[in-house]
Amino acid sequence: MCGRLFYLQYLTEKTQMRQLLPYVHSPSHFLGCELNSVHKLPETVSLRWGLAFPDVYELGMSYLGQKVLYSILNEHPRIWAERVFAPHLQMAGLLREHGLPLCTLESDTPLNRLDILGFSLTHELCYTTVLYMLDLAGIPFRAEDRGEGYPLIVGGGGAIVNPAPLLPFFDCFVVGEGEDIVLEMSQTLLRAEDDHLGRSDRLNALRSIPGVLIPSRQGRSVPGPSSELPEVERRVMTDMDRAKLPPDPVIPFGKPVHDRYTLEIARGCSRGCRFCQSGMISRPVRERSLETLSSSLQKGLEQTGYEDISFLALSAGDFSALDSLFRQSFELCSHNQVGISLPSLRVGSLSPAIMGMLSSLRRTGATLAPEAGSERLRRVINKGITEEELLRHVEQLFSLGWNGVKLYFMIGLPTETEDDLQAIVELCRKVRQLGRKKGRRLRVTASVTPFIPKPHTPFQWEAQLPLDEVNARLNFLRELFRKEKSLELRWHDPQMSQVEGVFSRGGTELAAALESAYHAGDVFTSWQECFSPEIWSRVFQENAIDEALLLGPRGETDELPWDFVNSGMSKRFLKQERARAFAEKPTPDCRYHSCRQCGVCSDREASSLLERQAAEGSITHRLNRGSRDQEETASGPLPGRSQDLGTKGAYIRLWYAKEGPAKYLSQLELQTVTHRMLRKAGLPLAFSRGFHPQPLVSFSRALPVGVASQKECLSVCLRHALQETDLLSRLNAWSVPGLRFFEIETAAGRKLPNPARERYLLRLLTSESRRVELRLAWSEAVRRERLPLVRRDKKNRLKEIDLRPRLEKVASSPSEGLYLVFNWQEGYISPLTLLQTITPDIGPQEYELVKQDQPSEESAWP
Ligand code: SF4
């Protein structure tokens, strides 16, 4: 839909959740009109998806899976996919108070009016938040209670390798990689729509799609044993160049956890760490080609204006053509002052050349995951790194300028002893010593997480340590670290890991406990401030859940709750790896060494367990090269920068209006959005110098969130004068609705000083009698000698200030409200503070405050 049409519709459609914007914290998270968000006319589509993420906006907007599905689905003209996140507790309270349902972001549509609602389930601790979202949307929790008219509730994501605890709640699960499945499901549902099929027939039609699990049979939900379910095969994208990389992901407002353009360079990992569920369930390794990555990066930066990118893979350092990828990306990134990060690195997997390139761009934190302190335990888990390699890696980091490192460890791994725990602190001491040798004081942080034996790994039959034993081992470590200077120990809450372990390893019996926990108040379980161990121990007891049994050891011949999920890994292989673990035998990476017949690939010695897909085409590792190129070209010269991005050659001023949805952007959000729009517009921006270069853009005084303005200004420093004539139209084409640039002028080189006086229009959106009352309050205020306000200063002392000199003029506008002239010569105060002092009982729904004018430095005003 064109921007103008969307804007008009946006302003008139305040029927549901959006009417709460003036009341809610972080209103921008509920606007749904971010750059690159997709808006369609509902009457032009036949299938409406909600892509739900059971956590808050900041986390959900960092999740690549949702961006991929959003892009794939919205390409189809008959489908509209919208986003929905779990609202924070304040917003949930407002929804309940006003009797409003949870809605989609883009169109403010109640979730129960969609055709299909797909939840991304990335870990087990988000399960009660799924119930929270269904509850806020007025959708019954259990599939058997949802009749015609309710959307189909679908679950997918990393946690769905054991969907057993969730079976009664979902109509359908997607097991494995979703790109092809969501399209096949959509095609099936579109046909069903054309044929006017009912809910039960639509579900039946979905059954035939590989990777789709329908828990209900004969129209009834299945709370019974999961062993009665038909086997479902994990879906694999065999060719990653066919898997869409969205070039134009939605650019979030605010500060999401990962605020960057993510380029997924590969899927799968065959290093074979025996504790790692992600590695085991994502084989084979499939790399994207360098050509695809190069064009995706170019398009991605053009479409988003991001200042950081990350190369995403389970182990990015193992990408076979990493050196070539870095060299081809370095020039583009360095010319646009874009940083590159590699979030998941194995020790020793980066060549000195790549580490040098990383350090010369914007520098991110250094984290390494030895996982275990001792060489012996690292052999048990098949980590495949030596202490010598780790110390060499850290030494390189320190010599390239990093001054801190974070090391990840697990405690409670099979066969762990006190010596292995002692080895954690010894390893940290050696890392600290490397810095001391160079005469520097380095920060070393050890982050410790209790081990959970996850399904589909060689350790799936092992026991998870009981809580008292985890605490004892943690206390032992805390005592060791207490005596050490510059070594910090952090740990993950062991009680939270116990709950995660129960849901990872349990079956359908957990469904009732999940409902009880939600009704007892549990939501956002993975947030430390929301997690309540008391609730969980109570609901486990009430629902006869034997935690010790679920976390205890399993026999190799036992039936496991997740056996009906065919991940491709054979039990024979997992048992063999378990035996090798106890024998401390390494298993080399099957990418470059012999096949171990794990059961995934179809072109090796044994046939693939993923039979339906193997019948369609070959399932195998797909690499760019037969060996890692960074080992061969490590000594090659680094590409250099061809221009100085700090050159200050010219200045411009941009005048803009910030109204409609844009008025809900905070100053920080506005700055980020504008920086990206300017980058996207290809302006030759000048940057500050230092480790974190920023574009030299100065904004005038910040507007309070919710206050609109018809005239704002920002100054931009450029490396050279502008040649373009269509800058305003380009900026407005990519702008957030309500943020409109209307004038561009060349400037003398400095930021426009903040004006001493500003004129506002206070629109009164209430009854005539109330308008009279409010007008009277302002007329009286301007006639008073003093308008005292008592508030706390920066040192938290009570201080009285007089607001009267700041209120220069009040004039009535019969049709609209009041014109107000504020004078800030005695210091700026938020106009909302004046408003609340003079009319303390005014509600957010009763007014709109719009800044109409401010004088430029050249012109006297008014
Ligand atoms: S089938 Fe062989 S080559 Fe393929 S992932 Fe398994 S062990 Fe590796």
Summarize the structure.
The chain is an alpha/beta fold. Iron/sulfur cluster binds next to loops.
Radius of gyration: 29 Å
End-to-end separation in angstroms reads 40 Å
Total number of helical segments?
26
Please give the number of β-strands: 27
User: What fraction, in percent, of the residue positions are helical?
Assistant: 25-40%
Mean pLDDT: 90
> Runs with pLDDT <50, length 5+?
218-223, 857-862
Q: Which ligands accompany this protein?
A: iron/sulfur cluster
Could you describe the 3D structure shown?
The protein is α/β, with parallel strands linked by helices and 862 residues long. It is 31% helix and 17% strand. It is built from 26 helices and 27 strands. Strands 18, 19, 20, 21, 22, 25, 26 and 27 form an eight-stranded mixed β-sheet that branches. A six-stranded mixed β-sheet has the order 2-1-3-4-5-6. It has a four-stranded parallel β-sheet with strand order 13-14-15-16, covered by helices on one side. Helix 15 (467-482) links the parallel strand 15 and strand 16. The protein starts with a helix and ends in a 9-residue tail after the last strand. Bound molecules: iron/sulfur cluster. Residues 270, 283-284, 590, 595-598, 600-601, 604 line the site of iron/sulfur cluster (SF4).
